[in-house]
Amino acid sequence: MQSVFVSYSHQDSAFADRLVRDLRYSEIPAVYDKWLLKVGDSIIDRIADAVVEASSVVAIVSGSSVASQWVRKELSLAMTSEVNARTVKVLPAVIDNCTVPPSISDKFFADFREGYFYGLLKLLEALDSRARVEPWERFRRLNDSKTLQAELERVLLSGDLLELRGWVRSRPQVLLFLLGRLWALSEVIDDFAFGQAREDIEYLVASGQSYHFEFQAVRLGPVHWRATSIPEMEAMAEATHRFVLNCRENYDEFARAASIRFAQDQIGPPSFVGYPEHFARRHEVRGTLLVGRRDQYDGEYQRLRQEIYERTNGLIELASYDRLLDALTARHNRGMQ
Hints:
CATH topology of the largest domain: Restriction Endonuclease
Shape: elongated
Strand content: 15-25%
Distance between the termini: 45 Å
Strand order of the largest sheet: 2-1-3-4-5
Order of helices and strands: EHEHHEHHEEHHHHHEHEEHHHEHEH
Structural class: alpha/beta
Largest sheet: 5 strands, parallel
Helix content: 40-55%
Number of strands: 10
């Protein structure tokens, strides 16, 4: 995806900072002038290049921006590019009661006056059709658990971790059978961008309803637990533990990022979504490291599993891939009843 340029008045800098960060949380490659300009750059040339090269221009519309000469120039460049390319390019984001410029008055706009999160979701829908896919629809696609069970058994028998990771990545919702709950939200995402998450975990599973949510950070370990050394296993567990602690210690920021990625305003802290203070609950964040098969386990594994559990105060658990198979089997049996 090409970059998305955010045009704004500098009186709206705080809003622009927040919007750009939240778009990037949502894997939209947003940029704005603060990231583009370096000492000695021609402001006009650099901004003009960014506007013309962008796939979309998000125009933050406010009383300040309507009166801004710079914003008018950026909109003019974007509209010219839009007409020439015959594609939708300018996406207005209205943040206060003002007169929308005539050049974009006929466009559907994201209305942030209805609430920040409401406007953000509308903007994400316009920028990326994948931004708002109903979690239950994804879950319903996994209706043939018997086939999934057979596929997983075959992949585990191969013992190839790369093949296993590829299989899970193509159908990550299988993790919901083991770690999810059939609540209003039951969803899994990969590449959760928070702290060092891209290095420390592979998936984040969320389940929740009515302002109560549970999160499981997931990492896939070797199919044969002896395929790696004890220190390497401990390092994987420690990396997952670091991620979990970072989420818990920086909870408001984590909740804010999670609410955007999972498209659920109830996850975020009160300051973000505006719900009553007494709903402010610190949602559970834990970690699971999937490693090996039950028939491989011995006293040394059990000792390591217990040691990691105790060392992390119960936040990190080692679990066998057989537990995922069991969850698929249980799902199939329930479906047959």
